[in-house]
Specification:
Blueprint (H helix, E strand, L loop, with lengths): L1 E8 L9 E8 L4 E5 L6 H9 L6 E6 L2 E2 L6 H7 E4 L12 H6 L7 H14 L15 H13 L5 E5 L7 H16 L3 E5 L11 E6 L2 E7 L7 H6 L6 H11 L11 H7 L1
Parallel strand pairs: 3-8, 3-9, 6-7, 7-8
Antiparallel strand pairs: 1-2, 1-4, 4-5, 9-10
């Protein structure tokens, strides 16, 4: 479990708190969507959890390990991986195997090969293992970046707007991968501005001015859609359709919030 207690944060040169006494828990094996307007603190939270930014006020523990304790640094890095918005800013090597192997120093070659193979299989990219990474589409590059994180065998994966720059087909593929990873036991934290990614999450957390103002479980989405809109969050198209149907007396409760599920119910 990731436990965030009384966390506040402000950047140097400003008195404005980006995070303000934030408290939340992220359980193993769940998908969390963290949404909110630009500047609400969602990306800052991800950077604090991963140690990219130093935590000075409050406590963050990863499976009981305090991230402020230097002796826990390596173990926490093994537990938590992060994928950022632009995959091209993360690429070090043009060779896919070299790119994924980069973070696996110290392991035997057989172990490295096995991890690279397994990670590429999980993102359905094994067929391009021998290709030049720079020749792939942006969506394929992002899948390789996800594979690079998976190769380290983390327990928690932070996805910081991972599909913002990717076309619709690439988005759908990554959404499918996210759902598959949840089934395999990973916990995924999706920091996003994209409405459709709410539908992937077991819980949606809305931040405003560094505070957690709303927490909505997946099964509550249709009933609390208006509340989501009131906080300036665009509704996913599928959720808008459900609300329209409900207004007309056609009450439909979905479990997975997919188009296929809605079609079957109709």
């Amino acid at each position: 479990m990731i436990k965030i207690e009384n966390v506040s944060f402000k950047y140097k040169g400003t008195d404005t708190k980006v995070l303000d006494n934030l408290n939340l828990e992220i359980q193993e094996g769940e998908i969390i969507a963290i949404v909110g307007k630009n500047g609400c603190g969602k990306s800052t939270l991800g950077k604090l959890i991963t140690g990219i930014l130093p935590l000075k006020q409050g406590t963050v523990t990863i499976d009981g390990l305090d991230i402020k304790d230097k002796k826990n640094e390596q173990e926490i890095r093994n537990k938590v991986g992060v994928v950022f918005q632009n995959p091209e800013n993360q690429i070090v090597f043009s060779n896919i195997k070299d790119e994924i192997s980069f973070a696996l120093k110290g392991l035997g070659q057989e172990e490295i090969d096995n991890r690279v193979q397994s990670a590429l299989e999980k993102v359905e990219m094994l067929q391009v293992k021998e290709q030049d990474l720079y020749n792939l589409s942006l969506g394929q590059k992002q899948r390789v970046m996800i594979a690079e994180v998976l190769a380290k065998n983390p327990k928690y994966i932070i996805l910081d707007e991972p599909t913002t720059m990717i076309d619709s087909l690439g988005k759908e593929k990554i959404y499918q991968i996210i759902c598959n990873l949840k089934k395999q036991g990973y916990a995924l934290i999706c920091i996003t501005n994209l409405a459709d990614e709410i539908l992937l999450a077991d819980r949606t957390l809305i931040l405003e001015k560094g505070k957690l103002v709303v927490e909505i479980k997946k099964e509550e989405l249709a009933q609390r859609a208006q509340e989501i809109e009131q906080h300036g969050i665009k509704l996913p198209t599928l959720l808008e359709i459900l609300c329209k149907l409900n207004e007309k007396g056609k009450m439909i409760d979905l479990q997975e919030y997919t188009v296929e599920e809605l079609v079957k119910r109709l």
